[in-house]
Amino acid sequence: MSRKEQILKQLAARKKAFTILGSVVVLCAVIFGLYWGFYGSRYISTDNAYTATEIAQVTPEIDGTIKAVNVVDTNSVKEGEILVEIDPRDMQVAYDKAKANYDRAKIDFDRRKALSTSGSVSADELTRSENDLAQASANFREATLNLERTTIRSPIDGVVAKRQVQLGQRVRAGTPMMVIVPLLKLHVDANFKESELEKIHIGQKVRLTSDLYGSRVVYQGVVDGFSGGTGAAFATIPAQNATGNWIKVVQRVPVRIQLQPEELAANPLSVGVSMKVRVDTRSD
Prior knowledge:
The protein is an alpha+beta fold. It is built from 4 helices and 14 strands. Its main location: other.
């Protein structure tokens, strides 16, 4: 083969290689364009997301000694179910005294009111009796309420967590006893980059999966609201950027995503579970 033929063959091979390379580049560009047009520009995703909920704190409203504790951590409870009972004897005595005083004051007032029409009882005396009845009535209502407060019921449906109260313990009003976690009212706090928030709006549909179940369980959520500040703004020790060595860091803003109770009932989640979130920005 002559020198000229070798050169022509090499040029043909190079041309073929460049053609193939160009075709690959064009194909990649087309694939990327299709991806961006149908997916990348439509969906915004993050795995910096966790389940959360508004828990109910259970505390006594009176001082007393614990007579019974009917639940332990992980127990499911219904609204109104009895959680804790405080020894009612002291409150029962106070109730009986208040009721006796009220009954006596009521009888005394009724008698004076009947006599006042004939002039046998002065207006001042009737007024004092009426005031005594009002005071006795208030004391009786307070004693009744305190007696009812010896029975502590669940304020909501949920699961018992952080139980701290023990049988025989002397507690004061406001002492934390436990919390009730409403697992069917969980939401997700998804932390998106501040540069991504422009496309996210309330009402957009969200696809979620959890690390607990993996991709086999998909939750359908809705964007419910935005936090009033970034995570760094609400940190215990907020960042101090007014320094000479300041470096810009992209901040993340929590976005609240509402979950469906029926999906949570079918596949329960716990508070703090990691989630993967994908927002459909064209669904509003």
